[in-house]
Structures are given as C-alpha cells and as structure tokens.
C-alpha cells in the first residue's frame, strides 16, 4: 500500500496516521473504523484554494456527497472553501455545522418543491437548475414567496469523460442538465433571462468522476466557453460565472496516475483564457467542485480479520468485519483498493489473499488479491483512500451498524461520527397497536 499524507510505519511495525498508532485507534474505537488524516485533508483544501481562489478569486466548492459530517464541513469552511449539496439532508448537515448558506450551491436533478423552499428560505448562494421542470417550479415558488434566487443552469456539454477517445462534439446520453446540442440549453438560458424571479449568474457542467485525462477537462472548458459566446451572440447576455464541476481522479492502486491539483487548475484556466481571447469575452468567475480529490486520500478504513476459507488451487478468502455496507464501491463498479496489515505493517508478504466482507452477497468483496504477511484472526487490515463515496454510500444491509469516523492530527484523535449501535437500527421502526 502506498503511504499517503501523514501515514508512516512506526518502530513497533504498526501503521500510524496523524501521529496515532492505528492499532491503538482500533483498540479504543473498535472496527470497522474510518480514520481521517486532518493534515492531508487541509493540505488538499489549501492546494485547491491556492490554485483557484488566492490569486484569481475563483471559487472552490467541496462536493459534500463524497463525505459530509459537521466536523468536515467546518474544516472545509475554515480553509476558505464553499460547499456543494444535492439534497435537503446535505443542506441540513451543512447548516448544523454552521456553514454560511451563501457559500453553498444546491445541486440535484430532482429537487422537490420542499427542498427548493428550504434552500430559498435559508439563502443558499446558488441554486443550480437541472431541467425545465425545475426551472418552472423554482420560478413559481420564487414568484409566490417573493424570492429572486441567484441561479446557474446545468448543461450537458456532450463531453464523454469515460470513453477512451473522448468526444468533443456530439450528444451524450445523460440524465443531467440541458443539452447544448439540439438547442435545449440555449432555450433554457433565454427562459431564465426573461424571468423576473430568477437571477441567472452563469452556467455549470460536471462531466464525470475519477478522471485522469486533463484533455477531458480542457475539452469541457472550451465547449462551455464557446457556448457562452454563442449565448452572448443570441441574447446579448455575458455570463459572469462558469462552474466546471468536479471529477479530478485520485490514486487508489498502482495503475492510477492522477494529475496534480495544480496541473488541473492550469489546464482549466488556460482553456478559459484561450477562449476569452478568441471571443474577446471577459473572463468569467470560475468555480470547481472537487469531492473525491479532497477527501478520498485522507480516509483510511480499518477492519479486523476474522474467518477465512482456502480453496486449494483457487484462492484464499479472508473475511473482515465490514464490507459492502461501509464500502460498496468494489461491488458497484469493480473499484480497486490497496491495503496493509496495520499491526504487521513492516512484515514481508508471504501470500496473496482475497479480502471479502461479511455480507450475504458473493459480490461483497473489498480486494481480490492482496499480498499479506502471515496473518491470523484479530489482525487489522487498513484500506487506504476510502474517504470518498464510502461512508456516504454506506448502508445498513444485514443490519450492520455504520462505522465510527475519527479525525487524527499530531497524535490526537477526535471522534467526528459516532459508531451506530444495534439499538439505533430499530429507532425508526413502529409496531402498530393491533400487533400487541
Ligand atoms: C459528484 C459531483 C461532483 C464531485 O465529483 P468528484 O468526482 O467527487 O470530484 C461535483 N459536482 C457535481 C455536480 C457532482 O455531481
């Protein structure tokens, strides 16, 4: 496993994060346990802030769907970064953290009328309108209740981030946003500009996630700038803001070679400036919305090894005390991870094993082939880069309780999300009277 951030192997041969011995953390807090390296989290925030905000005044919004807790929201805010939320629930957590609503952008492809009312009443910075239905709904509510929200329109620029030879033209099949091709986006812009109840600030796109190819980001930025120019030609409106979404990839395993934050920023800004010169267009204020690249590397999940099953000539399965409930990514999209035996971190590997979860699903795998030293039940497995889309995608399948989350820094540890208890699991259940 590649050591990231403050990770190191201490003189007892144990993995250490944020100056805390992971074996000690597991003893104190139990497993599965998610550990967040505060220094690395802050460093990622600072690099984004420096690359976008410090000199150019562009905005960075952390995509809270990657992982959101009240403590993490406070760190994000203290580092000068805004927040992107996609539901009334995420907005509620952000407000509970004391996050300033004007620094929150509200996304989502099917916000309810209630969520829109809630967002209006707390004064979020931008509402990002995804489709015509929402445009009409938001306008109606704003008119009826006397608001004039600042809005962005989400567009589908037709950049396919996941095909190998990405395409810069042509329509993509996406459930999100107004398509540029076919005129849907231009009509939506005209419609929003006409409305006295909406204050259109700019346009937005988000082309995908875990992207390594900077050409994809460049392509999207160029296309969006061309579209801003097309909008100005047709309407006379010069969009002051352009939000290019998130999507920068991270290192999970040895095949992954993500670009660094600074290169990503330069690519985007160069593309925008190139088009500004070409079209004689004033540089819009840019926004980016990184989620994974801020929170994934700082997160590590620690499990306890339990049972194992060796199938001679096939493989050896070793089970941990969590699985797809706390990390559904391998089951969902064959995601790969690296791991290390945290209490034998300096020991030489002697065999390859398959790490499986404890859920009643054959697809409940975490790592198909992990090189490990001689292991026994009770050993601790740390899997790195689990900060994003793990806890936030977790479930209670098999009525497993969600892990605790701790924040570590300089040898100190704080719990930021308590472990769910078995008692919590029936707290929303009701028994009707006739069943007594
Ligand atoms: C998911 C999402 C992001 C964050 O994506 P990452 O790949 O985690 O950086 C940003 N913006 C929007 C609109 C998203 O849906």
UniProtKB/TrEMBL annotation:
GO molecular function: diaminopimelate decarboxylase activity; pyridoxal phosphate binding
Annotated Orn/DAP/Arg decarboxylase 2 N-terminal domain residues: 41-295
Cofactor or coenzyme needed: pyridoxal 5'-phosphate
Keyword presence, Cytoplasm: no
SUPFAM superfamilies recorded: Alanine racemase C-terminal domain-like, PLP-binding barrel
Subunit structure: Homodimer.
Keyword Amino-acid biosynthesis (UniProt): yes
Protein name: Diaminopimelate decarboxylase
InterPro entries noted in UniProt: Ala_racemase/Decarboxylase_C, DAP_deCOOHase_LysA, De-COase2_C, De-COase2_N, De-COase2_pyr-phos_BS, Orn/DAP/Arg_de-COase, PLP-binding_barrel
Enzyme active site: 360 (proton donor)
Positions bound to pyridoxal 5'-phosphate: 247, 289-292, 389
EC number of the protein: 4.1.1.20
Function recorded in the entry: Specifically catalyzes the decarboxylation of meso-diaminopimelate (meso-DAP) to L-lysine.
Any one biological process term the GO annotation gives: lysine biosynthetic process via diaminopimelate
N6-(pyridoxal phosphate)lysine modified-residue sites: 65
Entry keywords, A to Z: Amino-acid biosynthesis, Decarboxylase, Lyase, Lysine biosynthesis, Pyridoxal phosphate
Sequence ranges assigned to domain Orn/DAP/Arg decarboxylase 2 C-terminal in this UniProt record: 305-387
Catalytic activity: meso-2,6-diaminopimelate + H(+) = L-lysine + CO2
Alphabetical list of HAMAP family matching this protein: LysA
Annotated metabolic or biological route of this protein: Amino-acid biosynthesis; L-lysine biosynthesis via DAP pathway; L-lysine from DL-2,6-diaminopimelate: step 1/1
Family: Belongs to the Orn/Lys/Arg decarboxylase class-II family. LysA subfamily.
Residues annotated for substrate binding in this entry: 292, 329, 333, 361, 389
Domain of life of the organism encoding this protein: Bacteria
């Amino acid at each position: 496993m590649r050591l990231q951030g403050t990770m190191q192997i201490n003189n007892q041969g144990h993995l250490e994060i944020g100056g805390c011995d992971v074996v000690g953390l597991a003893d104190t807090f139990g497993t599965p346990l998610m550990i967040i390296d505060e220094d690395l989290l802050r460093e990622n925030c600072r690099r984004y802030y420096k690359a976008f905000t410090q000199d150019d005044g562009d905005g960075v919004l952390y995509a809270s769907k990657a992982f959101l807790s009240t403590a993490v929201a406070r760190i994000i805010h203290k580092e000068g970064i805004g927040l992107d939320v996609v539901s009334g629930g995420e907005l509620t957590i952000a407000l509970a953290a004391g996050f300033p609503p004007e620094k929150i952008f509200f996304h989502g492809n099917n916000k309810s009328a209630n969520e829109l009312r809630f967002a209006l009443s707390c004064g979020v910075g931008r509402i990002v309108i995804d489709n015509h239905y929402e445009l009409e709904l938001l306008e109606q509510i704003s008119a009826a209740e006397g608001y004039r929200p600042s809005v962005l329109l989400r567009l589908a620029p037709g950049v396919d981030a996941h095909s190998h030879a990405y395409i810069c033209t042509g329509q993509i099949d996406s459930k999100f946003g107004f398509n540029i091709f076919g005129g849907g986006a231009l009509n939506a812009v005209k419609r929003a500009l006409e409305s006295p109840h909406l204050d259109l600030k700019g346009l937005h796109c988000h082309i995908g996630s875990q992207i390594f190819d900077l050409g994809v980001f460049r392509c999207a930025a160029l296309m969006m700038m061309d579209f801003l120019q097309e909008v100005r030609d047709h309407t006379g409106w010069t969009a002051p803001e352009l939000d290019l979404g998130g999507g920068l990839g991270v290192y999970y395993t040895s095949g992954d070679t993500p670009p660094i934050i600074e290169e990503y920023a330069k690519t985007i800004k160069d593309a925008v400036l190139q088009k500004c010169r070409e079209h004689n267009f004033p540089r819009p204020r840019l926004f980016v919305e990184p989620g994974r690249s801020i929170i994934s590397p700082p997160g590590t999940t620690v499990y306890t090894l339990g049972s194992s099953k060796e199938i001679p000539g096939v493989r050896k399965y070793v089970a941990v005390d969590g699985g797809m409930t706390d990390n559904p990514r391998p089951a969902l999209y064959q995601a790969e991870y690296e791991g290390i035996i945290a209490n034998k971190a300096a020991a030489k590997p002697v065999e390859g094993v398959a790490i499986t979860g404890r859920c009643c699903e054959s697809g409940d795998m975490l790592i198909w082939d992990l090189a490990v030293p001689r292991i026994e039940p009770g050993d601790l497995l740390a899997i790195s880069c689990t900060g994003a889309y793990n806890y936030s995608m977790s479930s209670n399948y098999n009525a497993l309780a969600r892990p605790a989350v701790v924040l570590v820094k300089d040898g100190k540890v704080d719990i930021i999300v308590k472990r769910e208890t078995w008692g919590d699991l029936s707290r929303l259940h009701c028994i009707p009277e006739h069943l007594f």
